[in-house]
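Feature request, filed as a ticket because there's no other form

It would be nice if the structure record came with a short human-readable summary line next to the tokens. Right now we just get the raw output. Example of a typical job, pasted below so the devs can see what we mean:
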Amino acid sequence: MDRKIFSTAAFFGMTAIILGAFGAHALKKVLTLDQLATFETGVKYQMYHALFLLFLGLNNHLTSKTKKTIVFLTILGIIFFSGSIYLLATNSLTSFDFKVIGIVTPIGGLLLIVAWSIFMIQFLKKKA
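Raw output as currently delivered:
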């Protein structure tokens, strides 16, 4: 299980770096400062949660079932939250109006909050 978590963390970390560089160099020429800041928010949250997954994989105090739940919620949260932010920030570059998927962003944020909440609750339940 931990190997899958590490691989997932590495994938999201790697793609956050790629997307950050893409935003800083290629998109800088075609997006407004506000759109770039929005795109960067997606990159930051993706990287924060890649590190969260890495920490989760290193943690030996949680059951495999709990880890699986947290990983699932985090993956969906990253895809919904950061993914929708990337699409919304670059909306002006396509003919499709991604504003219709705007509702996905807070759902992704909620999934990330739930993942962190489960993580916290599991530690609060542990006896010293």
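Something like this underneath would help us a lot:
The two ends are 26 Å apart (CA to CA).
The chain has four helices and no strands.
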